[in-house]
Amino acid sequence: MYKQQLTKEQAHQKAKHYCAYQERCHSEVKEKLYGFGLRKADVEELLSKLIEEDYLNEERFAVQFTGGRFRMKQWGRVKIKYELKQKQVSEYVIKKALKTITEEDYWATAQKLYDQKLQQLKGETNQFIRKKKLSDYLLQKGYEHAVINELLN
Question: Which GO terms describe its biological process (predicted)?
């Protein structure tokens, strides 16, 4: 990514801007620092520094990520959890972040997606095919089987 190798201080400044612009997870920042041409020891040291200075906070990142994906993209818990795992966020932090979604909002969103999809499938006369399409859609959005079955019945 970077042609010239940055000094530790330059990398620290760039990483601070990177984290201040938007919440980041540890793995994203680590990748960025390696992209600056730093060695493992320097990367670890800078990560610690960023955490101490509160530029980097995995819990804050997870809560914001969860809220954003749920509100904007209307993802279910399964998909959000999967994405956070991909970003190497700890299981404890993932659980905590998912708790920020209220049951009422979760069910309301699932119901809304169900109704919208049902509207699109008006022309589908075979009820089994319609149910299958509804189910597949909600699964793809990351909703649990229990939630989907509840909506279908």
Answer: regulation of DNA repair
pTM for this predicted structure = 0.89
Residue 74 carries which DSSP code? -
Q: How far apart are CA 72 and CA 60, in angstroms?
A: 18
Residue 107 CB neighbours (<10 A): 13
Domain boundaries along the sequence of the chain: 8-56, 59-98, 103-152
CA distances from 133 to 46, 124, 127, 130 (A): 48, 10, 10, 5
> What percentage of residues in the chain have a pLDDT greater than 90?
90
Quick: pLDDT tens for 83-141: 999 999 999 999 999 999 999 999 999 999 999 999 999 988 999 999 999 999 999 99
Torsion of CA 10, 11, 14, 15, to 10 degrees: -150
Counting beta carbons within 10 angstroms of the beta carbon of residue 110, is it exposed (0 to 12), middle (13 to 18) or buried (19 or more)? buried
Cβ contact 72:41 at 8 Å: no
